[in-house]
Design brief:
Elements: H1 12-17, H2 21-35, H3 39-49, H4 54-81, H5 84-103, H6 108-136, H7 142-170, H8 172-193, H9 208-217, H10 219-231, H11 241-248, H12 253-278, H13 283-300, H14 307-335, H15 341-369, H16 371-390
Helix pairs in contact: 2-7, 2-8, 4-5, 4-6, 4-15, 5-6, 5-8, 6-15, 7-8, 7-12, 7-14, 10-13, 10-15, 10-16, 12-14, 13-14, 13-16, 15-16
Length: 400
């Protein structure tokens, strides 16, 4: 599992100092945006209070994911064709407007339509952002660069979830307004302060067919895709079935908000040092073990009778998240040819959007009808994810 090295690894502080200024600008923008990411984590509780059924909520999340799947393809192409910055700015501005549209929804149909556009705009952002981050730093610094980005994500998320739980008890309207405002601010930061990143010189170079051929031949990437497909299912139960579990245990929204904030703060404290340590090991094993621990964490929620065991489950899940996600971001960038990085990230983004389409609604349905199948099924997802990626070829794919 361990990758031998004849050279001493630079210290974490030295690696952080070596990161270029745009990485820190990106991190600041991510923090602002994630601090205001209120709506989606609380959408299940919001719609439940409004009288919508688990099936209705599933349809809304499915529309959110459908928009994301559509824009993962579009966003990956735009990131390679018109540049990372332009794609990010357009996507974030559209996302702010879409959140406001979701706020004004007053029927299931309007929720579904607005959710589709929220997913469409958010989904177009991620391939460009991941590609820009990889453009900015050399391969040996990418795990730390992705770790810094996730530090900002989770610091913002932790602070935001803590605030969001209290805001939700005052008025859910504040969640929508805050989410739209912070997303718009990040859009402005992207447009005025970030570099363009790489882009194709011709339309032919940014077409999808050559990228799909490259992806199909890239067996390591295909394994990563399917491993991620099972792994990401685990992330969406915290905003769905587990949110209802916490409510059914008799806790108010602020307890859910504080538990989710604890996830973010734990990542802020521990992920960068942990990323600096695990990057010396084989990336496939690190990612696989991380997804497996996420499965264990979700499964343990089935045994919870109070917030203490929920907290233990969350810690195990968070450790899995911390060791897998920064390494996964760097690993995908390593597997992708430089001129196809946006489209590779777009395809990988499909796993998250597919998970968004299936996991929240399926998790809610299983929680209501057969909770044991949800918890054991989550553990099975973690095991399958580990097996898929560790069985993959260890050969580094050649750039076409």
């Amino acid at each position: 599992m361990k990758t031998p090295s004849t050279h001493p690894s630079p210290s974490l502080a030295a690696e952080l100092r070596s990161l270029p200024r745009p990485v820190w600008v990106l991190a600041i923008g991510v923090f602002i945006n994630r601090f205001g990411t209120f709506v989606i984590p609380f959408l299940t509780l919001y719609m439940t209070k409004a009288g919508y059924s688990p099936t209705d909520i599933w349809k809304t999340f499915a529309a959110l994911a459908a928009g994301g799947m559509t824009s993962a393809i579009l966003g990956g192409w735009l990131a390679d064709r018109v540049g990372r910055k332009n794609t990010m700015s357009l996507a974030l501005t559209s996302a702010a407007l879409s959140i406001l549209a979701l706020w004004q929804a007053d029927s299931l149909a309007s929720y579904v339509i607005a959710a589709f556009f929220v997913g469409l705009s958010h989904g177009a952002y991620h391939p460009a952002a991941s590609s820009l981050l990889a453009d900015l730093v050399p391969p040996e610094r990418r795990v730390i660069a992705f770790g810094v980005s996730r530090f900002a994500i989770n610091l913002g998320f932790g602070c935001g979830m803590a605030a969001g739980g209290f805001l939700a008890e005052i008025s859910y309207d504040l969640l929508f307004i805050g989410d739209a405002l912070t997303t718009g601010v990040y859009g402005a930061i992207s447009f005025f302060l970030l570099p363009h990143g790489l882009k194709s010189e011709t339309g032919k170079a940014s077409r999808w067919l050559p990228a799909l051929v490259s992806i199909w031949k890239n067996k390591a990437f295909v394994a990563m895709f399917f491993s991620s497909l099972f792994g990401v299912f685990l992330f969406f139960h915290w905003g769905g079935a587990i949110a209802l579990l916490i409510q059914d245990l008799g806790y108010p929204e602020r307890v859910y908000g504080m538990l989710m904030a604890f996830n973010g703060f734990l990542i802020v404290i521990a992920e960068l040092p942990l990323s600096h340590w695990v990057k010396r090991f084989n990336a496939r094993w690190v990612i696989g073990i991380g997804f497996f621990l996420c499965g264990v964490g979700v499964a343990l929620c089935g045994f919870a009778t109070g917030w203490i065991l929920l907290g233990v489950a969350l810690v195990i899940f968070t450790v899995g998240e911390m060791i897998s996600m920064p390494v996964a971001g760097a690993y995908i960038s390593e597997l992708a040819p430089e001129d196809m990085r946006g489209r590779y990230n777009g395809v990988m983004g499909l796993t998250w959007h597919f998970g968004h389409a299936i996991a929240p609604g399926l998790g809610l349905l299983l929680y209501k009808t057969n909770p044991a199948s949800l918890w054991w099924g989550s553990l099975a997802c973690g095991v399958i994810s580990l097996l898929i990626i560790t069985a993959a070829s260890s050969e580094t794919p050649k750039t076409p």
